[in-house]
Prior knowledge:
The protein is mostly helical. It has one domain (about 1-200). Helix content is about 75%, strand content about 0%. The protein is built from 8 helices and no strands.
Amino acid sequence: MSLILFVEYVGIASAALSGFLFAVKRECDWLGVFLSAFLTALGGGIVRDMLVGRAVYSFTHYMPVSVVIFMLVVSRITNLHIKRDGLEKKFVFIFADAIDVICFSIVGAMVAIEYSYNIFGVMMIAFFNGVGGGILRDILLNEVPWFLRTGLYGTISLGVGLAYFILYHLGLSNIFFTMLLLAAGITVRMFAFYRGWKLPDL
């Protein structure tokens, strides 16, 4: 399995989990739960593929949707749907959400570089891949987009795209530095959330 697929599948699994938990809190039925998990996990990748003009990966390969379904089954079997009060502050939700936004941002940057995008294109594709699924989920569930109301969410996604672009052009986009970027991004996101970091108001 290539590095880009490994990172993407980790992101899909964690995003499906956060989509599942989000839908359960909104008391959705199983169709709603599936759509929430599907959009959270795969929506950003769909937006990314549309922007770079390639066939949608989730619709040409079986693994992405299979990972979503697997995570739904595991989440139901382990009864993650039982305790849903204060979901946005639960560590499992915040951590899963941090993993998926950083993973997807890295994958978005990888794909953008593959299509010869410049630094601005790489950052924006990383952003849309990172937060696009969450935006689609929040629209479905009639929520204010999560990235607009929680610690540096979108800003970190843009920063990860910029960092990967720099690593790539320094010849450091190997598995070690990519995993280091993943760990650093998750760490910053967790600190930003729990310490209430945010950009200054206008």
